[in-house]
Amino acid sequence: MTSLVEVSNMYFHYPRAKIAAGDVGWTLHDISVAIRPNSTVGIVGESGSGKSTLIRVMCGLLRHQKGSVKFDGREVSEYEGAGVNDLRRRNQIVFQNPRRSLDPRMTIRRSLSEPIRALQERNPDDTELITSIQRVGLGPEVLSRFPHQLSGGQLQRVGIARSLSVNPDVLYADEPVSALDVSVQAQVLNLLMDLRDQLGLTLVMVSHDLGVVSRMCEEIVVMRHGRIVEAGRTDSVLAKPASEYTAALLRAARAASLERSTAN
Amino acid sequence: MLQLRNLRVAIDDQEIINIAELDLQPGSRLGLVGESGSGKTMTAKAIAGLLPDETKVSGSVVFGGQNLLELGDRELAKIRGKRIGFVFQDPARSLNPMMRIGKQVSEAIRLHTDLKGDAVKAKVIELLRQVQLPDPEALVRRYPHQLSGGQQQRVMIAAAIAADPELLIADEPTTALDVTVQEEILRLLISLSEQRKMSLLFVSHDLGVIRFVCDRVAVIYGGNIVESGRIEDIVTRPMHRYTAALLAANPGMPKDDNFSAYIGKRLQTITGSVPAVGKFPSGCRFRNRCQHATESCSNAPATSTVGQEHRYACWNPGNGGR
User: Please, how many CA atoms are within 13 Å of residue B104, restricted to the half-sphere of its CB?
Assistant: First the structure.
């Protein structure tokens, strides 16, 4: 099957990153990863491993310096002019902290309309916004509220609705539940799984929680120090990690997790 | 060593906390678990006397034979930070960004011990070594932003144990950290508590983390302790429906490496969300979110005991209450 997103031998560094002789100080180093349509991929690793940077390069928010990043068969650099909006519309991100990613001075109605106005250059009507907010399990009364009037779980639902309002092909979720309580996490994760199935989304999820990734993602990419340590089917990688690093991550995750049979 | 009896906390006549009974044994590690808004941090703050002035607190918090709620500010100052230490969630916000690490730790030592001069310096190094920070001599000259999140939390722990407290209260100390760093910090807290015979009150929303650290757990909802007991009893045989729901909502890790059967499995959720203060139902506070609620639940449930020290307050418990 052809890939929707295809990254090959890609290198990235932030502007003005330290450049020593012979060492460019790459933030991402020789990354190759392919994402099939309708698949769910988990990207795991510690803070500073480059996982959030990687998804920003994949969706064209950051420009890589070497190698290739293709979306739907074309280099992301080829999406220019009107094409940029098309690239942005089809690749959407949900961020970790919804309280910080929504403008506190805007009503939810306004926040929810912004991507449609910016990327599709039209004003959505109330019917469309109500459908969009109901899809994530919230009521229409939310539209006239401000972010400070909503709980963390509700705000993350708004963040998801906002990303989905422009009908993307790929939804990138950057630690979407790590700022939430365990019980609210479960609601948001189930919602993401339902929406993925209903809308036929490709889901790329950055998470440090192996319990979450092992439930939601059929494929996993393990990163460390800007490189891919290991990648493959989640069940085979986690059941038999090839790298010592993945094994160490697993041990740490297992130590402080509830072990459970798969009955529920 | 710590006994809470009929602890009530209210703001503007709204009752936030009502704990009939909660005990922490010497050297024991007690987890306090619940969702945001369940009252767990409020309870920790009430014990520490860190609640704002407008709160009304009644009942008793007996620590080392004294009711902390009856002490004046000067007497409380001899206990707070000295015999009871604190570690909070976000070390980057608890540390002073303008102050070198050595100074931050030595301030705690000067404030809570009689040490002076070179003895303070030596104590700083000793404490940084006890929290397993590498090269303490160089570290004292650094600023917080030069340290990783895990190292910052170790510095906070070093300052918290400066005066050899009998009790350490840790409020979500690893929530902001990576899994591998989390495990290291949790292991550090366990070993400090064992070496120093220091009791630990560990506040978290994650029963997985609490099971790793604690021998006992109390589950709090709507400001009430709904279930308490030995951690293994609670995790394997929860009685209160809220405890069972919290356990089921936890993503966990699959048993016996059976990852293939885990994929695509939905999580069990708890219906609705924690009500705002004053919006909890009468009787059992959880009944409007509980799938097993019966008519009896509109009356306050009595506390039942099962096995050893396993207490719960539920009209329709799981496992038939046995």
Answer: 27
